[in-house]
Protein: Homocysteine S-methyltransferase
Amino acid sequence: MSFLPEDLGTVILDGGLATHLETLGHDLSDELWSARLLMEDPEAILRAHLDYFAAGADVATTASYQASFPGLMRRGRNLHEAQALMQLSVELALQARDTSGGGVVAASVGPYGACLANGAEYTGAYDLDEQELLDWHRPRWEVLADSGADVLACETIPSYAEARAIARLLAETPGVNAWIAFSCRDDERIRDGTPLERCAELFAGNPQVVAIGVNCTSPAHIKSLLARLDGCPIIVYPNSGETWDPEHRRWRGIADPTEFATAAVQWRDAGATYVGGCCRTTPEHIRLIRERLG
Structure:
């Protein structure tokens, strides 16, 4: 299955992998987040992928978002073992796809801030410059680029310098396809304050980039942000509408899957080709999106 079959129409992404794993009873209050289960309970990740496919998702996004070499090695894994765990994240998604009868596997490439586990992925306030970010991303990128995944999901990008580093990695690996999704703080800008249009320009017209868009962002900002993207397929998978309190490490607010699915129709009508959910969205969100978008 190619990433965007011409007859598929809107591509339905999955929802929050970690969110569903927590629903299944797993405590992910750990700097590795869902990647911890690659070591402790990979069958749980497989089940979560299967549940999203059963709900109507066309795409399984792997549990590699927070699976960095530094993070895994801090947990006692050596270089080879860390690489094997990243590969395992893709193998689990591939197994779920094959069991479910088809779909796309997107290898998650989380931002540098996710490895820091200090909230920097929501601010883009980094202690590395563009070259250092390129060097930090490259080892994991090379593993995931050669993992058998259909596409690399470069997601929750909060920093313009990090976006530039990812653009350079794409140039280094011409056989790799990717989508690029930025995390935004308002109707106009990504987390570090850079206008979304300026970030999107880094990837516009690049044949390796299957879509550009927004994730890990409040649904309230999505329609305005979509209007700032032009000339490329658009991907959108926001948070549920709840907000993350980094000080107390918990979510605040209440979100309705039905309202989220209704909004997904608006996003599709505003130009989004790829639609799904991020943090705090569940298989029920995806089931309703599939129902509404057909």
Observations:
- The mean pLDDT is 93.
- The longest helix spans residues 79-100.
- The domain at 11-293 is CATH 3.20.20.330 (TIM Barrel).
